[in-house]
Amino acid sequence: MTTNTASARYEGLGKDGKGSISTKSGVLSEQPYGFGTRFEGKPGTNPEELIAAAHAACFTMATSFALAGAGHPDGTLDTQCTVTLDKDGDGFTVTKSALTLKASIPGITPEDFARIADEAKAGCPISKLLNCEVTLEKSLAG
């Protein structure tokens, strides 16, 4: 079993409050977040951006391991993830996580690539965690 931790602190409440996020590894250390970073494009991060980063990283790693396990030891995977936050009554809901994969895998057929990528999307732990629509667009160079 693997566990990881992160923490968040919020000073002041509501729209005027300001928060910070930190991770055990230190990759994020008191990274600012709040209403402005989430809804107004101000510098800092927000929960949806962090989810998108986690989903892109997890899916890309799952795809990499699946490709290697299928006998494809070399290649490049580039994934972008867009997480959508929609108004839901008085609150908000994450409604979609859209993965876009661009890959270059020598010697793979388009059919094998599509199957492996789809299986990786379904098996990725972050895909399993998310309670929203998860989509995948994929393209194979060469």
Automatic annotation (TrEMBL):
One function term, GO molecular function aspect: peroxidase activity
GO biological process: response to oxidative stress
Region Disordered, annotated ranges: 1-24
InterPro entries: KH_dom-like_a/b (IPR015946), OsmC/Ohr_fam (IPR003718), OsmC/Ohrsf (IPR036102), OsmC_Ohr_Peroxiredoxin (IPR052707), Peroxiredoxin_OsmC (IPR019904)
SUPFAM superfamilies: OsmC-like
Pfam families hit by this protein: OsmC
Superkingdom of origin organism: Bacteria
Transmembrane segments: none
Protein name according to UniProt: Peroxiredoxin
